[in-house]
Write a structure and sequence with these properties.
The protein is mainly alpha-helical. The protein is 83% helix and 0% strand.
Length: 83
């Protein structure tokens, strides 16, 4: 643990940001998984789940949690699977 006041604050900020990012990434992965399962099972709400997953991917890419090309690739795969 650092002794300098500014460094202590930075550690706290880093921990809080890390926790927020982890939760957001987990929610994004969950949305992807749910959409994937809905598409596989040809569920009634598959299109809605796909839209939610794409929205979560766009949000994550916008916040810098994942690279924009990664988001584009995953959206393309999801859309192709839905057809």
């Amino acid at each position: 643990m650092p002794n300098i006041k500014g460094a202590i604050k930075r550690v706290k900020q880093n921990n809080a940001t890390n926790e927020q990012n982890s939760k957001a990434k987990s929610a994004m992965r969950s949305a992807l998984r749910k959409a994937d399962v809905a598409i596989d099972n040809k569920a009634d709400n598959a299109e809605e789940m796909k839209r939610a997953a794409i929205k979560s991917l766009d949000t994550a890419a916008g916040k810098g949690l994942i690279h924009k090309n990664t988001a584009a690739r995953q959206k393309a795969r999801l859309t192709k699977k839905a057809l």
